[in-house]
């Protein structure tokens, strides 16, 4: 039996977490980490996977990296339907991400008997990792081109760079569209791996 429950509120750049003791519901830890692979792995390595249950809302591609790392590190975790959280008695969105993380942790204590741990099939796991790696590469390319455009816009006051700027703007648009397509594919993998409407089992 796992004695500690961690709720995580997922945002684009950060993960707010709260750890509760299962029996007493006493808050043991809370904090914020960056939604990046290195930071998440460092945090997970300090947790006892044999004694911890993790839960997060299904928030699309923002939670994909965390889901993949939880799978890779063999943690037990739940991917919660946001509608189920909203419908739960007394569970309203908090005034902060930390409050939401606490309520997610409390929710899995109350509803654990209705929940099934989330599990990505091996093939989906490999595909998700490939998509995340590709997305990271395109994001870096996007940042590089945006920085180049800023420099070129300044330089264009003295040098004719209209064609170069136009070309790079076209490339940037293509890269941003590619990132959106990759994120859509990532979200579809998570959705197809488990129908969130059947997260609850019949009592």
TrEMBL record:
One short Pfam name that applies is DEDD_Tnp_IS110
- Coiled-coil residues are 165-199
Q: Domain Transposase IS110-like N-terminal spans what residues? A: 6-151
What top-level branch of life does the organism fall under? Bacteria
Entry's Gene Ontology BP terms: DNA transposition
Claim: Magnesium is one of the keywords in the record: no
Q: Which InterPro entries match?
A: Transp_IS110-like_N (IPR002525), Transpos_IS110 (IPR047650)
Q: Which GO terms describe its molecular function?
A: DNA binding; transposase activity
Q: Which UniProt keywords apply?
A: Coiled coil
What protein does this entry describe? Transposase
Origin organism is Paenimyroides ummariense
